[in-house]
Structures are given as structure tokens and as C-alpha cells.
Amino acid sequence: MTENVKALDIVRTEYFTIDRLELESGEVLAPVILAYETCGKLNAARSNAVLICHALTGDAHVAGTNTATGKPGWWDTMVGPGKAFDTDELFIICSNVIGGCQGSTGPSSPNPATGEAYGLDFPLITIGDMVNAQAKLIEHLGIEKLLSVAGGSMGGMQSLTWATSYPERIGSVIAIATTARHSPQQIAFNEVGRQAIIADPNFNNGRYYGGKTPERGLAMARMVGHITYMSDESMADKFGRRFREGHGGTGKFAADFEVATYLQYKGDNFVKRFDANSYLYITRAIDLYDLAGERDLPSTLAGARHAPFLVLAFKSDWLYPAHQSRELVRGCKLAGIDVTYCEINSTYGHDAFLLEVEEETHLIKHFLKKISRDTAGGTR
I want to staple 99 with a disulfide (CB 3.0 to 4.6 A). Which of 23, 125, 142, 249 is the partner? Predict the structure, then answer.
């Protein structure tokens, strides 16, 4: 387990092996490896653990500087001593999801049956499968009940799934810029990304490992995704209609607007750290996500009525618009859940959950302190 360090300057990735994981589809993965990191110190009562769930392309490295990569965590502004998730008080856990490519078992992992990478032989996974694997990790760490489960975007979906699948093992939920189910528009954007990957000449039906990879398709998928992460206003502020320096003379349809150059940069960098097959599987899991399914949302959430919810949305987020969060809040209230909702006036679009640090810190810190007090006082 990662040792507690005040400044979070030493954080290393660790690995937990699950011998056998039966998926919601009925298929079985064996074994399954989960990459995870921890920071802060687990108290004697083991009552201060918070699981943070990452978004689509995130990983286990949520905060601090990783000893292997030297890079800061993806939510380093929010996790650490004195921050929203205060590691002076809390024990933070974050694991890379199954299906991923950042250390956990996914399509690029060796298939025990063949010795080669799974590729498209990897079974379809769901958000529930991701959560079931996390539950085994939490059990392995000796934690009976989490103080809270938190996450933004796809991480929020995992948090909500914890509430319905393991209500007795959570004390609260923090769901940020997320939804209880994907809308047709959200599915449509993911479909465009998947088709860009599949149409890449190097995709080779998912068997590209050891050869040329579908970089162009994956980069295009990332570019489409990145458009949805920003807002019209944030793009206007950041790029306007400016051309990049030295434009001209590079062809009739060159990407010489600053916004176009930026998107290409994001796409080209993304392919250096992410696997195209993982992108297919994880976006598919998100699209299949429907928390209530055939049931109604209040009755689905009813089992978690003991656990307060904090739901945050951002006014300029058009990928997961605020009305989806309000629908979730309505479901919580009808289920009898103590829910706090805040709609933050941000111009950053969906990216706001990573960028609106000050407002989120105030809300999350206050929420977690109250949960901690109630837990310590035995009223929760």
C-alpha cells in the first residue's frame, strides 16, 4: 500500500489480481489485474476511505507525482493535503477500470488462452463490471465501508452504480457532471469516434498489436470527444477565429485555424498514451449504461436512501447537460435520499469538472466534513 506522504510527492502504482471475475454478460475474465494508487492514511476504524473513479481516458494516478512517470495526477488540484479531498483526513483510492490500458486488464492484455493480446476477443464490459472489480479491490484493502464514492463524467456513473449495487458499503456519493443513462446524442458522439477507429486502415479488426496502430482513427475519435468537452464560449475565448502563426501555403484545407491545430495536437498526443481497442470498449460500456434500466430511477435508488448525495453540474456542459443532473436529483428526492445539488455557473463546458477547482473544493470539502462528523458521531 502506498505510504502516507504529506506533500503527495511519492505515489506509486500498485497492482491487485482478481483470480476470477464473472461479468454481467455471463462471460468470465480470469485473471483480472487492477492498477491502483492510494494516498493519505487509513484510520484505525477504517472509516475514512474515499474511492475516486476516473473518467473515460483517466487512470489510477489521481494525485501527487508518480514515481515511475514523474507526472502529476489527473485531479492533483483536488486531491492532497488541505484540498477538496483532504489527504490529511482521508484515505484516497483510485483504480484504473477494467477494459483500460493504464495497467488494468483490457484488450491489450495477454489472453491466457492464446498468449497474445485479447484484441476484439476481449468480452464486452459494463460500468457494473468496472464497479464489481473495484469492490473486490476495496475488500482486498480491508475496508468494509467507504466514506464516499466520487467521480465526474464516467466516474460519476461508477459512483451511482456503487449506490445501487453496494449500498451497504458506501456512506455517501459525489456525482459530478454525469447522468443516470446515456442519451441518443451522447451515444451518437461515441459512435462517430468508434467508427473513425474501425475505419482506420491499420485497425485490422483489432489485431494491430506489434504492428502499425490505428493512430489516425484514434486521434479523430479524441478530436470529436474533445469538442464535446469544451463549450462554444470557452472555444471562443481560447481560440476565437485566429489562424495559427505561419499559416498559408499548406493547402486549401489545411488545419490552420488555431482551434483546428489545437484539436490535432490533442489527438496526436492522445494516441501516445491510449489504446484504440480500449477506447472502443469503454465508450461502449458508457453507451450501454442505464442505471435504472426497466425500473424507475427512485425505486432503483431507494436502497441507498441512507447515503447522502452531492450532485454537481455545470451550466455550460452540453455533453452532460444540467437537466440530466436535475433528473438524477429528482430521483434521489423521490427515493428519500438526502441530496445536495449545485449547478455551477462555469464557461468551461464539460471540462469544468476538472477546472472549476475553487467552487468544487468548497462544496466537496464541506460535504465530506459533514459526512465524516456524522460517521464519527455514530449518526450515520
Answer: 125
Which residue, chain included where needed, has cell 470529436?
Answer: 224
Which positions ≥6 away from 171 have C-beta within 8 Å?
A: 145, 146, 147, 148, 307, 371, 375, 380
Residue with cell 476504524: 45
- Residue-wise pLDDT for 315-337, tens only, equals 999 999 999 999 999 999 999 99
pLDDT of 68 reads 81
Give the 3-state secondary structure of the chain: CCCCCCCCCCECCEEEEECCEECCCCCEECCEEEEEEEECCCCCCCCCEEEEECCCCCCCCCCCEECCCCCECCCCCCEECCCCEECCCCEEEEECCCCCCCCCCCCCCECCCCCCECHHHCCCCCHHHHHHHHHHHHHHCCCCCECEEEEECHHHHHHHHHHHHCHHHECCEEEECCCCECCHHHHHHHHHHHHHHHCCCCCHHHCCCCCCCCHHHHHHHHHHHHHHHCCHHHHHHHCCCCECCCCCCCCCCCCCEHHHHHHHHHHHHHCCCCCHHHHHHHHHHHHHCECCCCCCHHHHHHHHCCCCEEEEEECCCCCCCHHHHHHHHHHHHHHCCCEEEEEECCCCHHHHHHHCHHHHHHHHHHHHHHHHHHHHCCCC
Q: How, if at all, do strands 91-95 and 32-39 pair?
A: antiparallel
Question: Looking at the annotation, which residues are catalytic?
Answer: 153, 317, 350
Tell me what pLDDT residue 8 has: 63
Q: Are 255 and 264 in contact (CB under 8 A)?
A: yes
Q: What is the rounded CA–CA span in Å between residue 353 and residue 154?
A: 12
Query: Three cell numbers at 29?
Result: 475474465
Q: In the predicted model, what is the mean pLDDT of residues 81-99?
A: 97
CA-wise closest residue to 355 among 74, 69, 12: 74
| pLDDT above 70 as % of the chain | 96
CA 324/CA 328 separation, integer angstroms: 6
Q: Name the phi and psi angles at 226, rounded to 5.
A: -65, -30
Half-sphere exposure of 15 (CA within 13 A, CB side): 9
**Is the model's pTM score more than 0.90?**
yes
The C-alpha cell at 128 is: 457494473
